[in-house]
Design brief:
Arc Repressor Mutant, subunit A; six-stranded parallel beta sheet; nucleotide-binding; Helicase_C-like; Rossmann fold; DNA damage; DNA binding; ATP-dependent DNA helicase
Length: 954
């Protein structure tokens, strides 16, 4: 036993040391050696160590020791976890210690029975395991508040997870309210590896002193990056799975890795991917389960127990399994596709091993060059401890609005200054101004949530306070849930979040749930129900939604750019992809095949004779960390820029907004960490893009983006959620933001704290204004090089959209979807209007339209095909005198009529599609194609483009 071992356990009393002996704890783990001394001394402490390394006992042994010495009358300690599933695990782990030490350990959360709650209020347990939301509820009860006055310790598990969320911001105020009750307590945080430990420590303690004890996780992680090599056996497997050989190779490699180990967690980035992979393993009858947040509690517990018992060799899971849910011994972790962030990789791979500080072993299985280079960068950064910081929500005004009614409800009449001081002691609200606090108060007063007596400067309860407090214990957004029903059997198969339904769902779209593929047949907003039909042949479909992406940080994207910059001169000097890959292998953990495959894309990029559609054969420039390559083909402009998701999204919105203003038309936008893709009107020249970049003041980036957000559905959705926390909207009641008038909502709330918070949240969650402005400044100063290229390049075409479907089907295996689109369009209604005599108008279904529509009144073939709700266009065409808006409507109708006159019913079909006007319809019609299927496929493509970009349109 080392000196450190003796020093750690010797800090504990006789009873706890006896429990350690009984439990078989002869020597402490690394985090116990480091952290028990300051914890036993009563210091606020943040313990940073991987899951499974004994963090729970590290925190609780000194707490138990203190409670044994001085038995509390009320609650002695709270153990707060972000998941109910963790509560269950913690109770299983801590009950033994409580029994041995004669301390009562209990759990309390939303499912706790009224009887148990009452018993806890009358006779509080010594240690209570609970959630952040239940802490909020406990602060409202008189007897519970009395019991909390005895509190001496608060342990927050997975504190890094809470620090980066509004739930955590709410909890930080809750801790200050607990301090007002108890007069102070020891704060203990248990965290995964983070890039800014001191910031998380300040979050934990409210800016007070905090000891930080951190285990170096990177040195104990062994990660290999592998892209599957297609083998002869994969062709046979592809036939069995009805997919392509490269997809089969992914499944085969994961299968082989699982078979090589005893118990493997397979992490994926979205629930959709978990379901898709799960369906493949089900077809192969492999003992691999699926675990994610959309499954029922019973289903999750079942697969956890089967995995722990050894009945399952592998468990497919999403971020929910990153946290410390006990699934027994794990000896290997697979990450399918890049984990996108260093912190995620460390937390996921860190779930393997940990028997006496052994190395955690994991494999990242990648699918294409972007994915591989990104994974290599993340693996290297993980090894060297270069982790992203936790992004704390600073000054969330809806959290302030949420906490004021709770304060008043529990204390009665409160002076404004006292309430302000409690809230501003919490670390995320240290910079909250009193004037802003008063503005929030005024809004709550107008919404009758509290009574604000400005004369007395006091806050009091109102008729709505009690109801508000109990309806808003959580900062998790209130989103309606849609039931998903099989249209044939009427049975419910699952649920969908409102955000998914509002932003994606429409008849004909395909998604995966419960490992099966479904096509949306009908959406009933009144009943909050989505009717679907099963897809019998999954190989014949392409899912049109692949889930929300985890944002790739700028630092990771920049390193991918640096890898390209290192490779470029070697390739130009004549080295091949294999030689460059061998050179990279000295720094990055990839095998020769994986590195060679990734570098092949770069080899093609520098080859002047690469097989592209470029109009010239000049050498193709390489996008790097300090070089942006702008390439153009037709209406598509791609800026290859290695700045990560959020900076690229910011730059993309800036460009689409300013170019759209110049063109007087919308500009489509799609971004990934390495590209900004714009779909521009033909009137937009490449020189226009360069001018916008050169002339836009970097200091104006935020203002321009905010202006562009004003009419967006994305802002309206967040504003509806924020305003619900202010009591400004009835809590949904079937009126989600997708069915509210966004224009009226945005206009009514523009000059309020709610609008300010919604804007802050969009910028915090989705955008990086500071870095985008720095990129713009770098381009203007010449520090960042900008080169242009005519035509597409191999790197430019290698975006995320090219790799999202490999699990399910080849790109054009979508016959069922195309047929559905065709049927839907034929059943859609249109208005036909004669633009010659303007007298004849008819409403009809597309399928009833003649091949060459003709006016029955005057015989003209100049028939405009309009949307079924476009009566104002009809009125505009017929008006004798027209204002500017009516002139625009009339011009649009005439363009539609010209198209119908030239192309007949084909034009009517194209313009019946969602988001397809005369301009896009003409593009679709004028394209040469071999069969009708291609015509409908192009319509579907335009509809999907519209669905992706409509949030940015006026």
């Amino acid at each position: 036993m080392t000196e450190g071992d003796v020093a750690a356990f010797s800090q504990l009393g006789t009873m706890v040391r006896g429990a350690l002996s009984e439990r078989g704890f002869s020597t402490p783990t690394a985090p116990q050696r480091l952290a028990i001394p300051p914890l036993a001394a009563g210091e606020n402490t943040l313990v940073i160590a991987p899951t499974g390394s004994g963090k729970t006992e590290t925190a609780m042994l000194p707490v138990f020791d203190d409670l044994v010495d001085e038995r509390p009358e009320g609650f002695g300690a709270l153990y707060i976890t972000p998941l109910r599933a963790l509560n269950r695990d913690m109770l299983d782990r801590l009950e033994w210690w409580g029994d041995f030490l004669d301390l009562e350990v209990d759990v309390r959360h939303g499912d706790t029975t009224d009887y148990q709650r009452s018993k806890q209020a009358e006779d509080p347990p010594d240690v209570l395991i609970t959630t952040p939301e239940t802490v909020q509820a406990m602060l409202t009860g008189d007897r519970l508040r009395d019991a909390l006055a005895d509190l001496s310790h608060v342990v927050i598990d997975e504190v890094h997870e809470l620090a980066a969320s509004k739930r955590g911001a709410q909890l930080s105020i809750g801790l200050e309210r607990l301090r007002d009750l108890s007069g102070g307590f020891q704060r203990i945080g248990l965290s995964a590896t983070v890039g800014d430990p001191s910031e998380v420590g300040q979050f934990l303690t409210g800016g007070r002193r905090c000891e930080i004890r951190e285990i170096d996780v990177g040195s104990n992680v062994d990660v290999t990056v592998r892209q599957p090599e297609i083998r002869p056996e994969d062709e046979q497997l592809a036939g069995q799975l009805m997919t392509e050989a490269d997809t089969a190779s992914h499944v085969r490699l994961i299968r082989d890795l699982v078979e090589e180990h005893e118990s493997t967690l397979i992490f994926v980035n979205t629930r959709q991917t978990a379901e898709a992979l799960g369906s493949r393993f089900t077809e192969l009858d492999l003992p691999i389960g699926v675990h994610h947040g959309s499954l029922s509690k019973e289903a999750r517990i079942d697969v956890e127990d089967r995995f722990k018992a050894g009945d399952l060799d592998g468990l497919l899971c999403t971020s929910s399994m990153e946290l410390g849910i006990d699934v027994g011994r794990v000896d290997h972790v697979i990450q399918y596709k890049s984990p996108r962030q260093v912190a995620r990789l460390l937390q996921r791979i860190g779930r393997a091993g940990h028997r006496r500080d052994e190395v955690s072993i994991g494999t990242i299985v990648t699918t294409r060059p972007d994915d591989t280079f990104e994974a290599l960068s993340i693996a290297r950064r993980a090894r060297d401890g270069e982790v992203e910081p936790a992004r704390i929500h600073e000054g969330s005004l809806d959290v302030v609005a949420n906490q004021i009614p709770g304060l008043v409800h529990s204390r009665g009449s409160v002076h404004v200054r006292d309430a302000y001081e409690t809230i501003s002691r919490a670390y995320p609200f240290r910079d909250l101004e009193l004037e802003t606090f008063r503005e929030v108060l005024g809004e709550l007063h107008r919404n009758r949530i509290v009574w604000f007596d400005e004369g007395e400067d006091r806050i009091e309860t109102s008729g709505g306070t009690w109801q508000y407090v109990y309806a808003n214990l959580s900062m998790i957004p209130d989103e309606e849930t849609y039931e998903v029903h099989d249209i044939a059997s009427s049975s419910q198969i699952g649920t969908l979040d409102e955000r998914f339904v509002v932003n994606f769902a429409q008849p004909g779209e395909v998604f995966i749930q419960r490992g099966e593929m479904w096509r949306i047949a009908e959406i009933d907003d009144d009943e909050s129900r989505v009717k679907v039909s099963p897809i019998e042949d999954p190989a014949g479909e392409v899912p049109s939604w692949i889930g929300q992406e985890i944002p790739v940080p700028a630092a990771v994207a920049q390193e991918v750019g640096e890898i390209r910059a290192v490779a470029e001169p070697q390739l130009e000097a004549g080295a091949d992809a294999r030689a460059v890959g061998r050179e990279l292998s000295g720094r990055y953990p990839g095998d020769e095949y994986t590195l060679t495959e990734a570098c092949t894309q770069l080899e093609r990029q520098v080859d002047a004779d690469a097989d592209t559609d470029a109009a010239d054969t000049s050498p193709m420039p390489m996008p790097t960390a300090d070089r942006i390559v702008l390439e153009r083909q037709g209406r598509t402009i791609v800026l290859n820029a290695c700045y990560g998701h959020m900076a690229n999204e910011t730059l993309g919105r800036l460009l689409s907004s300013l170019l759209g203003q110049r063109a007087g038309s919308s500009v489509g936008l799609e971004t990934d960490p390495y590209r900004i893709e714009l779909e521009v009107p033909t009137s937009v020249a490449t020189s226009d893009v360069l001018e916008v970049i050169e002339e836009t003041d970097p200091d104006h980036v935020q203002a321009i983006i905010e202006l562009g957000l004003k009419n967006s559905d994305a802002l309206a959705f967040r504003l509806a959620q924020v305003s619900a926390k202010f009591g400004a909207l009835k809590r949904w009641q079937g009126q989600g933001s997708g069915r509210l008038s966004n224009d009226r909502l945005l206009a009514a709330l523009e000059d309020t704290p709610m609008y300010e918070e919604a804007i802050r949240e969009v910028f915090h969650e989705d955008l990086d204004v500071e870095r985008a402005a720095a990129v713009l400044e770098g381009l203007q100063s010449g520090e960042i090089e900008l080169v242009t290229h005519r035509g597409r390049t191999p790197v430019g075409q290698g975006g995320r959209s090219s790799g999202g479907k490999e699990l399910l089907a080849p790109e054009n295996a979508d016959a069922g979807v195309i047929e559905t689109v065709k049927e839907r369009l034929q059943d859609d209604r249109v208005i036909l209007l004669c633009t010659h005599c303007t007298e004849w108008k008819a409403r009809t279904k597309v399928k009833r339209v003649q091949e060459q529509p003709k006016c029955p009144e005057c015989g003209s073939t100049r028939i405009a095909s309009l949307n079924p709700w476009a009566d104002e266009v009809v009125q505009a065409v017929r008006a004798a005198e027209k204002d500017d808006e009516q002139e625009q409507m009339t011009e649009r109708a005439f363009r539609a009529a010209s198209l119908v006159q030239s192309h007949g019913k084909q034009a009517v079909i194209a313009m019946a599609a969602r988001g397809v006007g005369p301009h896009n319809a003409a593009q679709i019609i004028n394209k040469l194609r071999e069969d009708e299927t291609e015509f409908y496929r192009d319509i579907l493509s335009k509809e999907r483009e519209y669905a992706r970009t409509q949030a940015f349109w006026d």
